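Bumping my old thread because nobody answered last time. Still need a sequence for this structure:
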């Protein structure tokens, strides 16, 4: 490959306002991921409790 085929363009540093917006967007995505993980965890715990109740009722 030749140097010009890499298409690496240097990024200019963000302005303070752009950096703040970028940071806030990252925080939102992180919070959304944490919320999804917590909901999944709680759902799995609820299923485990239901299975334990069913197995206790069978004996």
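Sorry it took so long. Here it is:
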């Amino acid at each position: 490959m030749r140097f010009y085929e890499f298409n690496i363009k240097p990024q200019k540093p963000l302005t303070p306002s752009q950096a703040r917006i970028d940071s806030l967007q990252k925080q939102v995505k992180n919070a959304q991921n944490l919320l999804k993980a917590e909901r999944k965890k709680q759902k799995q715990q609820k299923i485990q409790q239901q299975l334990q109740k069913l197995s206790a009722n069978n004996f």
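The chain is about 75% helix and 0% strand. Let me know if any region looks off to you.
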